[in-house]
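**User:** Here is a favour to ask of a fellow structure person. Please take any protein you like and set down a full record of it. No explanation is needed for now; the record alone will do.

**Assistant:**
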Amino acid sequence: MFCVHDHYNNISLEYKGIRLTYGMSIDYLAMPGIDKDTEQRGAELITIHPDSAFDVEQIKLTDIE
């Protein structure tokens, strides 16, 4: 399950065989001051392979700019 949100808790982990991922926020209007907290902002890159396996990578906004 993939969920995105506009808070500071970005995590991806596996629990009982299920990958739970909260994505990073690219939005700059979500919370007062989030435009200055660039370490907490970014994107999730989800790569799905032909065998249905997938990779999840968090990309920080500072690495995109």
In short: Residues 2-64 form one domain. The first strand starts at residue 2 and ends at 4. The chain has a mean pLDDT of 78.
